[in-house]
Design a protein that fits this description.
The protein is α+β, with helices and mostly antiparallel strands. It has two helices and five strands.
């Protein structure tokens, strides 16, 4: 259970890093255009826009941070002139995704920690592993070397 929670934590950290890298790539070669929403699905929002050089772009991965967009809607996008398929809704950055990442992490650990605790308790194994103390020496057995040895 805890391994699964750790994997989700690593995935969310990777997502947070990737969002910031995308923002940095867009900011490094920033351009703006008016886009039209073509489709909206749970996994992506399809858009179309025309770049400064007149090329029509339909990013296969959709637009970053698309919340509250509807088909047919026109809006301003910011894209990278180095890679026009890397595009986000103007004014939205990776900080928009922080709430989602935090919510997933909180939910994961609020479920995983108590569940791991209950599973461990139910198994009859101790909750924490304790180090075993070194075996006690028998005073009747003489020690080799040390003070008082003959």
């Amino acid at each position: 259970m805890l391994v699964l929670a750790l994997l989700i934590t690593v995935m969310m950290a990777a997502l947070a890093v990737a969002m910031r890298r995308n923002d940095a790539a867009i900011n490094a070669h920033l351009a703006r255009a008016t886009a039209t929403v073509l489709t909206v699905s749970p996994l992506r929002t399809g858009i179309e826009f025309v770049t400064e050089d007149g090329t029509t772009v339909r990013p296969p991965d959709g637009v970053l941070y698309p919340g509250l967009l509807t088909p047919g809607q026109k809006f301003i996008v910011e894209y990278s002139t180095a890679d026009p398929e890397l595009v986000r809704v103007a004014g939205r950055t990776a900080s928009v995704g922080n709430l989602m990442v935090a919510a997933v992490l909180v939910a994961t650990w609020l479920i995983a920690a108590p569940l791991a605790y209950l599973l461990r308790r139910r198994s009859g194994r101790p909750l924490l592993r304790r180090r075993q103390p070194p075996p006690a020496t028998d005073p009747a057995v003489p020690s080799l070397g040390g003070p008082g040895a003959d």
